[in-house]
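User: Can you help me understand a structure? I only have the sequence.
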Amino acid sequence: MQGLFRSFFTVSFYTLISRILGFVRDILIARFLGSTVTSDAFFVAFRIPNFFRRVLAEGAYSAALIPVFSGIVIDSKDDHEAADFVENTMSLLLFVTVGLTIIFFFGMPYIIQLLAPGFSANEEAFGLAVHFGKIIFPYLIFISLVAHFTSINNVHNKFVAGALAPAILNISFILSLFILTPYLPTAGHALSYGVLLGGVLQFLYLYKAVLQFYRPRIRFPKFNEKIKKFFQLFFPGVIGSGVIQLNIVVGTIIASFLPIGAISHIYYADRLNQLPLAIFGIAMGIVLLPSLSKAIKNNNTEEIDITQNRALEFCLLISLPSAAGLYILSAPIINILFERGAFLSDDTFYTAKVLSLFALGLPAYIVIKVLVTCFFAREDTKTPLYISIVSVITNIVLSLLLIGSMREMGIALATAISAWVNTVLLFIVLRRNKYFILDSKLIINTFKITVSVILMAFGCYFLNLIIFANIQDLSLLLKIGSLLLILFCCNFLYLGMIFMLKVLTIQDLKGYIQK
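Assistant: Let's start by predicting it. Here is the structure, written out as tokens:
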């Protein structure tokens, strides 16, 4: 357990660095583009390779590769079998992504029509999205290989390179905005080239990192028993990951029919909602999968139960107050971060509303990362697939029902509700299969965490009501200082309750971080 949480804090720290750079990036994008035709077109184009990256690489690919590769590393007496598996899977991934890139490059107009049908009535938005998509899509090749090398490093308990790699993309975004924009038609063009450059640089960085273990070469793949086992896990997983990512695609399709700016509002809100998800939820999933896979391979029942319970408990400890804070403080956060340049007060209003509704589903999305990993570590990728299908159908139906009265806010609320449906169903199946046995500590601490969050939320609500009653009258410096004051007070209250109720102790913290 100490190794798990030490690795978790490592991944979280470097992810935080990347996310801070990501906020700088988004602030600059908002300043240069705001919520305009160009920004909507860029976000649609960027979403296409991101969809395949999450499905092929970070989703099903990692979920299938890590359990199989962990078994090879544990069982094999030399590195030859592991190196052979690394080269085989890398070559397969490369051939698939190159093929997809060629197909999508020439078929980009049809892809944009499918992904954003509302753009068909706007010639400028459609033309820009197609152009940006052709520039950006080769990014998929490089970022997929980055995910491959990250998984290999993670199995060997080396998490720094994979966690820090996204920072390279954010730096590429920022530099491209300032350096390339003066020489290109729009800042959207600069961002598109920045995506591609960032993918290449991330690939070079992760390839260098994996050289400490293997020197993988491109070759024609051999379909041995390990590769067949990989595909048995991969195909259900890729469908499951694809179904989950359809939530995003469905949201984009529906939002394309809304007034210009809706897609951008969803993007900016989702980026903020993704901060605690990436730092805590995704980070926990990254370190939990190889750790839990090894415990299961070794049939260590006690370690499995402790690892799962403490991982879920920690996610609740972080996600519940994060959701409460984002819900209550959505308006001042969006105002401070984005309201300048082309990003207007109306954009702040809609983006803040979307963020507050996204936040309702934040704890579910973070807990999903733990629950799904409990299936993946047992080489079960089919069950999360079936459950995700139910979740996506729920999301589609609710989005269509709510969008008429709530605009893009309806999409955010539907996404949050479908996340909770996914969470509940995953947990029920885990309990039924006796994969997850709740211990008394988790049950008691969940109640204590809930009480602490409720008290913190009351304090946060009244401080926000008093301090930001007339936010437009405050200077930017005063706004930032006031927000930091509220965050400090709320965190102090929450942590005070957590330590007073003995959810956490100083001894626990020392145990988590000591070597």
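Now, to help you interpret it: Residues 37-75 form the longest helix (39 residues). The radius of gyration is 22 Å. Let me know which part you'd like to focus on.
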